[in-house]
Design a protein that fits this description.
Elements: H1 11-41, H2 48-71, H3 83-97, E1 100-101, H4 102-108, H5 110-120, H6 126-129, E2 132-133, H7 139-162, H8 166-192, E3 197-198, E4 202-203, H9 216-236, H10 246-268, H11 272-293, H12 297-315, H13 318-326, H14 335-350, H15 361-364, H16 383-415, H17 424-438, H18 448-472, H19 483-495, H20 501-517, H21 525-537, H22 539-582, H23 586-606, H24 611-628, H25 638-657, H26 662-676, H27 681-691, H28 696-708, H29 712-725, H30 730-739, H31 754-763, H32 768-786, H33 793-805, H34 809-822, H35 827-839, H36 843-856, H37 861-871
Antiparallel strand pairs: 1-2, 3-4
Length: 876
């Protein structure tokens, strides 16, 4: 007896259950549409508060699904092979978060075990810490991304269970089209009005935002999916009537407007991949529609009208579109993305099967980053490469397998004769193709708004295939399920609590025995069919358990997200207090730092596994110690040394959470070196530079330690990185070499960079020989550059300044003349040329050049002083 089945005793109870399920389905439909509206409205749900709100809606939907399945257990989760890669992926990510014995980790991912052991072995209780390790290098980040996966799967299952009828599918497609049209119109309005921020009120500085998304590429993905829904609804509308009613005409015209506005918004957003993707998706849809329905007069009129609308909208920004697409011919425009992909391939080779942990790119990739971009890379600009990095072959294989299954469903939906609604698969398939193309150069699937809409598209494609199959068999699914469906039923049954595989095996043996005892039974495939039938007979039970598991998954996601949201709320307050504490007067600094540390501690208490919050809390504690130390120098104050020792202990605890977080080692090394005088300080500073090579502070400190130890080659490499990412620190770098009496080595740090050599020659005033050598090398490099016709005015002016410093005033005058011929609006260049002319004794020319400088910048006092001095020169 199956206790999960709810008995129905009479027609009244069945009718009541159906009525209740209808109300639940309508409620779920409203909640899903509300979620689809809220996600783009909240900038893609990239903030903790919006993510928690979306997860709350997802949890409520999953709980309603539980009620529904209890009322009508016969309508469980539809069978589809798509659940196999989804289930495998979730199990993989959960396995990444579980602490396993180090021997097991060494067997599954040898590089993970060795790297974590190397990074954590110097802890005070290092051997105990490395007895159990996780496959993920940062389980908290893995849990965060798993919450997005939970939301996406919840939406996917909801669409499969609830949106099975043509009417519900049309309503959902219409809602997506209306929402997409609203945000397309908003984006165009912001664009044409010259808005400086989202909603004209949220400035985002230099970020490439568009519409309501922080990144224009994310807007492109979301809009491409919305366009797929709008086109799908348009081409699936009934077209057999010779005359259309007014409502039908208005609906078609409205959808044409949405399609035109959405396409124009994608192109004007200046996302190159999005523009290519919308063209590819549209082409696929057109080909399918022509093959399926032909190209009649109405279709021709619709295409012409849509093309005219799109052209009219694009006309205003045609120059922007052309200039943006023209950058595809310039490799340097996308060189960093190509380099990142190559770097991630190197990471994957070290962690090929299980990856580094879902969501760990931000804290793990910097060690392998060979680009020259400053700042922290939060995601790879390639979803496929990041999937390989974080989840290995298993995760990437699951993603590809899921996409292939969806494409198979799409093919069956568009090729099988069926109701008009099935033709919507052509439009949805175009949107699905578009996001797959964009994922080659974007990380949109990590954004909840894009991921959820992708899940809706996939669920609808599977349901449309089912409608097509049911229509072909007059509403009854007569053919046997595909082999993947049987495999999924087997997996679900084997994993379901309360059921045993042994019972399943006994049933199969009994079936085989009855075959042998019944001479009239046809041998061969009949036994397999009976076995498969019993296997699939368990699907309903597995589906019921699956809904309950999904609800539990969603509740877990909401609970952990609420903790993160609470922590972020406290942290926002702490950041505001930090600005005040840094600027506080000495008499109020104690209270300011006390408030800051108390608020930051509450954030850490709400989410103690967030390594960034733990790190900054300890930074604030150190700033307070340094500011409030009684002796002035914390190294000589016993109370301050004790406080610093506690800070280092907490930093060591934070290292366990994320061993690859470089800034932790940098702060800890500085405290150990400057206050505690610990011998381990040098190793920690070197580790910081290894894990965060794009952090100029980490590289400078590690280079300084190498210089103290006489390791000049290693120091030069780290100082080179320091200068590359923070050119303003060149004075500190040169100061290190001068303090160690090795100015002869400083020019070799970047001997092919004329700007480095020029600055070194300026910063070594007392080392005339070394300064002259650096200046001469810079001049030789610039002479080669300026000999061509492509020399920039700034390069010519720089060469002129070097000539002037070397005493070659005539060469300086000539170079300044060439620079000013290409850019005559530089007052400083006019003034420098005037100075060189004065030194040559050409006073009239010098005075004229100084007047030109005043013409460009009337308030330039140096030019006025030079003119006055020229009138006092002998002979004037």
């Amino acid at each position: 007896m199956n206790l999960l089945l709810v008995p129905t005793e009479n027609r009244t109870s069945r009718t009541l259950a159906q009525l209740t399920c209808g109300i639940i389905d309508s409620t779920i439909e409203v909640l899903l549409v509300a979620m689809l509206l809220f996600l783009p409205l909240s900038l893609g749900a990239v903030e903790p508060w919006s993510e928690s709100t979306a997860l709350a809606l997802g949890t409520l939907i999953s709980l309603l699904l539980v009620v529904r399945i209890c009322l009508r257990p016969g309508e469980g989760i539809p069978r589809t092979a798509a659940f196999i890669p989804l289930l495998t992926y979730v199990l993989l990510v959960i396995a990444q978060m579980i602490a396993l014995p180090v021997s097991a980790v060494r067997l599954l991912s040898p590089r993970t075990a060795s790297m974590k052991t190397d990074l954590l072995s110097d802890l005070p209780d290092g051997p105990a810490r490395v007895r159990h390790l996780t496959l993920s290098f940062y389980p908290t980040a893995t849990a965060h991304d798993l919450r997005i996966v939970a939301l996406t799967i919840t939406v996917f299952v909801t669409v499969l269970v609830v949106f099975r009828s043509a009417a519900r599918i049309r309503r959902l497609l219409g809602a997506i089209a209306v929402i997409g049209g609203m945000f397309a119109m908003l984006a165009l309005a912001q664009d044409f009005s010259g808005a400086k921020g989202i909603y004209w009120r949220i400035p985002l500085g230099e970020l490439p935002w568009y519409g309501t998304f922080v990144a224009h590429s994310h807007f492109g993905q979301h809009m491409n999916l919305s366009l797929g829904a709008a086109i799908g609804l348009l081409i699936s509308l009934p077209s057999r009537a010779r005359t259309l009613r007014k409502r039908d005409v208005f609906m078609r015209v409205g959808l044409l407007l949405v399609i035109a506005a959405g396409t124009a918004a994608v192109v004007l957003s200046r996302t190159r991949a999005g523009t290519i993707a919308v063209a590819a998706g549209g082409l696929l849809t057109i080909v399918v529609v022509i093959l399926r329905r032909g190209f009649n007069r109405r279709a021709l009129i619709g295409c012409v009208a849509g093309a005219v609308l799109i052209a009219a909208l694009l006309l205003a920004g045609l120059h922007r579109v052309y200039s943006r697409m023209a950058t595809l011919q310039q490799p340097n425009e996308y060189a960093s993305r190509v380099t990142t992909t190559k770097d991630l391939f190197g990471v994957w080779r070290q962690f090929p099967i299980f990856g580094t942990g879902l969501g760990t790119h931000q804290t793990f990739y910097p060690r392998f980053d060979s680009t020259t971009m400053t700042g922290l890379s939060t995601h790879a600009e390639n979803d496929y490469a990041q999937a390989a990095e974080e989840t290995g072959l298993i995760g990437l294989g699951c993603a590809i397998a899921f996409a292939l299954i969806v494409w198979r469903e799409w093919k069956l939906a568009v090729s099988t004769p069926g109701p008009e609604i099935c033709l919507a698969a052509a439009g949805l398939g175009g949107g699905f193709l578009a996001v797959q193309i964009q994922s080659l150069s974007d990380f949109g699937q990590h954004i909840p708004a894009v991921a959820v809409l992708t899940a809706v598209t996939c669920g609808l494609l599977i349901n449309l295939r089912r409608i097509a199959s049911q229509s072909r068999t007059s509403g009854a699914l007569s053919r046997r399920p595909a082999v993947p469906g049987r495999s999924l039923a087997a997996i679900a049954y084997a994993l379901a609590p309360g059921m045993s595989l042994s019972r399943f095996a006994r049933t199969s043996f009994k079936t085989a025995a009855s075959q042998r005892s019944d001479p009239g039974r046809v041998p061969g495939r009949t036994g397999l069919r009976d076995f498969s039938g019993k296997l699939l007979g368990r699907w309903k039970n597995a589906g019921v358990l699956g809904i309950f598991a999904l609800a539990a998954f969603a509740v877990w996601a909401l609970y952990t997200s609420a903790n993160a949201f609470e922590a972020e709320a406290y942290w926002t307050q702490a950041q505001d207090l930090a600005d005040g504490a840094n600027a506080a007067a000495p008499e109020s600094a104690r209270q300011a730092y006390a408030d800051l540390i108390d608020t930051a501690s509450q954030a850490v208490s709400a989410d103690p596994d967030d390594v960034s919050h733990r790190y900054w809390l300890d930074v604030y504690r150190w700033r307070a110690v340094k500011q409030l130390s009684a002796a002035g120098d914390p190294a000589t104050d016993p109370a301050s040394r004790a406080a610093v020792s506690d800070i280092v202990t907490d930093l060591n605890e934070a290292r366990v959470l994320c061993p690859t977080y470089g800034p932790l080692y940098s702060v800890m090394g500085q405290l150990e070196y400057n206050v505690l005088h610990s011998p381990s300080s040098g190793a920690h500073l070197q580790t910081a530079a290894l894990l965060a090579p794009h952090d100029p502070g980490c590289c400078f400190l590690a280079g300084s330690m190498d210089a103290n130890d006489g390791k000049w080659e290693a120091a030069a490499r780290k100082f080179h990185l320091t200068y590359e990412f923070a050119p303003a620190r060149i004075e500190e770098i040169v100061g290190v070499y001068v303090s160690h009496n090795r100015p002869d080595l400083v020019a070799d740090i970047d001997s092919d960079d004329y700007e480095w050599l020029a600055r070194v020659s300026e910063l070594l005033p007392d080392q005339t020989e070394e300064a002259a050598k650096a200046r001469l090398r810079a001049i030789n490099l610039l002479q080669g550059i300026c000999a061509g016709s492509t020399a920039q005015p700034a390069q010519l002016a720089r060469l002129a300044a070097l000539y002037a410093a070397a005493g070659q005033d005539q060469a300086a005058v000539d170079c300044y003349q060439m620079a000013l011929a290409r850019a005559d609006d530089r007052a400083d260049w006019h003034l420098n040329r005037a100075e060189a002319l004065r030194r040559l004794g050409r006073f009239d020319e010098a005075r004229n050049e100084a007047y030109l400088a005043l013409g460009v910048q009337p308030d330039l006092q140096k030019a006025r002083d030079l003119i006055r001095s020229l009138f006092r020169e002998p002979g004037e």
